[in-house]
Amino acid sequence: MANISNTIKYNKFICDFYNQFIKIDNNYSDLVFLCIGTDRMTGDCFGPLVGNKIKNAIINYNIKCTVYGDLESPLIYSNVDKSIKEINERYNNPCIIAIDAALSKESNIGKILVRKGGLKFGGAINKGRKEVGNISIKAIIGKNYKTTHQNMELLQNTSLNFVMNLVDIVSEGIVEIIKKENNYSENSILSYVIR
C-alpha cells in the first residue's frame, strides 16, 4: 500500500471481507464475482478494474473462482440479468460477491463497505434498483447529489488515482483471502482477527 491511510483501509477491508467470507465459504459450490460498472466513466470503472485484477490473479495463483465484468466485457445495468441467468444455469449453488462503485453522503467518501446480502445498484443514475449477490462490496467514490445530471457529472470527473487506490485495496485483499482459504492451514484462519 502506498501510504498509512491505505494500509489502514486495507487492513479494515481484509477483516470485513474475511468475516463475511468465512461465514459462507463452505456453504456454496462455487465462488462468482460480479464486478459491476463501465470503463466509460472514471468513477464507475471501479468494478471492471477490480474484475481485471481478480482475473489476473486467477491465472497467476490458480484460484478457483469465476469473474463476470472487466474492462473488456463490462457488466452494466442492462446486461446483468443475462449474467445472473447464466450463473444460475451454470452453477448449482454459487456464492455471488457483487462489487460496485457507489455514491453516498460526503462523510463516507473513500470508505469500502462490505455487507452480507445483495448489492443494490442503478440508484445513482435513476434506474430501477436491482439487487444481486450474497456478499456486497461497495467503494464510495463520491457524494450522491440525488439528481441524475449531477451524479453523472461526478462519475465522469472522478480522479482515476483515487479510484485506483480503492481498486488496489479491494482486489489485493480479495486475492489474499482467497489464496489463504484455497491453501487452507490452521495459520490461515488465525491470521485474521475477527472484529
Mass-distribution shape: globular
| Mean pLDDT rating | 87
Q: Are there runs of 5+ residues with pLDDT below 50, and where?
A: 184-195
Estimate percent helicity: 40-55%
Percentage of β-strand residues: 15-25%
- Helix/strand/pairing class, anyone? alpha/beta
Number of strands: 7
Strand order of the largest sheet: 2-1-3-7-4
SSE layout and pairing:
Layout: H1 4-24, E1 30-35, H2 46-61, E2 66-68, H3 80-90, E3 94-104, E4 112-116, E5 119-121, E6 130-132, E7 135-143, H4 148-156, H5 160-182, H6 186-190
Parallel strand pairs: 1-2, 1-3, 3-7
Antiparallel strand pairs: 4-7, 5-6
Fold and architecture overview:
With 195 residues, the protein is α/β, with parallel strands linked by helices. It has six helices and seven strands, in the order αβαβαβββββααα. The strands form two sheets. A five-stranded mixed beta sheet has the order 2-1-3-7-4. β5 and β6 form a beta hairpin. The longest helix has 23 residues, at 160-182. The model is unreliable at 184-195 (pLDDT under 50).
Task: State the main characteristics.
7 strands; globular; disordered C terminus; five-stranded mixed β-sheet; two-stranded antiparallel ribbon; 6 helices; 21% strand; alpha/beta; single chain; 195 residues
Brief characterization of the structure:
This protein is an alpha/beta fold. The chain contains six helices and seven strands.
